[in-house]
Structure formats: C-alpha cells, structure tokens
Amino acid sequence: MELSDNEKTLANYLSEFPMNHSVPVYFGNPLSVDSDINNGTATLLKRNNRLYAITNHHVINGYLSRCEKEDGISLMIGGYYVKNILEHIAFNNKEFDICVLEFTGQKEDDFRMQGNVPTKFYELGKTEKTVKKGAVVAFGGYPGVFRVRKSTNQVEFHTLSSGASVVKEISDRNIIVSINHEKSAITTLTDVEPPSNIGGMSGGPVFEISKEGSITIFRFCGIIAECNDNYKVMFAKPVSLFASVIR
Q1: Residue 15: CATH number of its domain
Q2: What is the distance between the alpha carbons of residues 194 and 213, in angstroms, rounded to a whole number?
C-alpha cells in the first residue's frame, strides 16, 4: 500500500528530526587518497551545558585499531577534528556496544558540518523512560555506501532515515524495530533506494514519536547498533544503558 502525498510529507518531516541531532564519525588518512575511509554515526546530546557524542564501541574500537596499525589516521566527529580520543571517552563498553564521548571545552558550532542538514545537540531530560513495544520511532544515520571522497581531504556524506517505524520487541539491552517500507518514508540526499548494506549508521539516534494534542513530541530513546542485511529489522541500544554517564 503506497503512502498518500500528505502521508509522505509527514513521514519525511518526521524522518528529518533524527538527522538534526547526528553527524558522521569518520576516520582515515587525510593526506593519502589511497587510504580507506571508515565511518559510523554519532548522536549529539547535551545536559547541564556538557556536550556528548554517543556512538558504538565497535566504531571507536575500529578507529583505535587502525591507529595501532597505520600512521596518520585522523578522526572527525562532524566538523570537529578529535586530537586525542582518549581524553573524551567517558564510557566505552564492548558488551553493550556503546561509547560515550564527553566534550567540556568545545562549543556546539565546533561540530557543525556544511550542507543541508543542520547540526544541533539534543537536550536530554533529567529522567529518560524506556520506550514501549508498539511505539512509533524515527531514526537515521550516514551509510558508508553513500559516502563520497571528493578529494584527498574532503569527504561528502549523504543520509538515510525513517520517520514511521515501529518497536517490535524491547529488552534491557535492545530495542528491536520493524522497518515497514510500505508505511515509512526512507529519505536520502541521493534519492535512491535503501542499500542492502547500511554499515555506517551505527550510533545514529532513535526517537520515539508521540502526540500531545496537535503537537508532535520527539523523545530520545536510544542509538542504532545494527540492522539486518535486508533492512527490515533494526537493533538499537536503549538510553538506559548509558544515561547515568551523562551528567
């Protein structure tokens, strides 16, 4: 069943929200065009004037592993060059696959990127409730297959997001989201079908969508961990696993 024009407009609007609060995390050698570029996604949060970038353990571990094997590997979070990642790691848990990076001397503008997608840090509330089964969520990220290396030190990213997916199951460690293509709008800046491999979205934000009267409410509930190969099911890590680290 195809969405009506009004439904597509609404779904596209809902899918834009998570992209406003995320940026690509990418690393490689900016001086060598032959050097591979790897990327994930970082969710941008703030609380009590402290800035945080949340991504997956496997993303940051991938960067650290390349640094051990190769010279000249640089890490960017959006528009911000991270000189020493170890100074910013507040929580890095392999079992949960979560990494929380804290930035105390930086400003929000330091992470902004050029392009059509604005960059904002989402204000995390004092308490975060667990999302429930059946909830409608929006999520997004930066798939590596959409990444374009324009020149040696210039990388262009495109986005993939959904504004009308449904929580299928919930546990202490996972939010399982069913991605129904007939009832969700998939938006990319490249205007193509979603790829089968969406590696690079790891760490992207997941927001629960609700209504209070005529007002649409977005509430942060977790970060993307992985998707299955046919892009029908997405696994996310709930905010309860790392909320206590964000002061």
Answers
A1: 2.40.10.120
A2: 33
